[in-house]
Amino acid sequence: MLKLSKLADYATVLMTLIARDAARVHSGLELAERSGLPSPTVAKLLKALARGGLLQSLRGAHGGYRLARPAERISVADIIAALEGPIGVTECATHPGGCTLESACSTRANWRLINIAIRQALEAVTLAQMAAPPPARARAEFVLTFHRPPADSP
């Protein structure tokens, strides 16, 4: 199964909360309460996101975290990369030379194409889009598509 790590998922949740009120500074404790995540996890993620250049860390009595750049200029790929490093479906897609089969692998080129497509899809979705509520039509289509049995079922 191709799966995002829990920490990358949680980081996206935190970034979305911050983006929804980007004009102010957010404390780790407040974000932990709003997200339902444990404070130590939130602290770890906020530090990683700041190291990744996505958040600014402000010290002092009114300190906390805020976006380092507008939410429209932060992609989901940026968030994942800040936590996990380069996006790669397979090891050879991001770290050439790490596989003994690499020189004779007949699927490597195709995995690289798949990796590029996934990375481009994640780069195309901005934090601003993640923070915005889904349009009513999209919600209705989701309900109709995924919660209704197929027409040919009994």
Descriptive keywords:
single chain, 154 residues, mainly alpha, Arc Repressor Mutant, subunit A, two-stranded antiparallel ribbon, 2 strands, 5% strand, elongated, WH_DNA-bd_sf, Transcriptional regulator, BadM/Rrf2 family
Polypeptide structure, described:
The mean pLDDT is 86. The chain is mainly alpha-helical. The protein has a single domain (6-146), classed as Winged helix-like DNA-binding domain superfamily/Winged helix DNA-binding domain (Arc Repressor Mutant, subunit A, Orthogonal Bundle). α1 crosses α3 (39-51) and α2 (28-35) packs across α3 (39-51). It is 53% helix and 5% strand. The protein is elongated and about 60 Å long. It has eight helices and two strands; from the N terminus they run αααββααααα. The longest helix is centred in the last third of the chain and has 17 residues, at 108-124. A hairpin with a 5-residue loop joins β1 and β2 (64-67). A two-stranded antiparallel ribbon has the order 1-2. Pfam families: Rrf2 (PF02082). This is Transcriptional regulator, BadM/Rrf2 family.
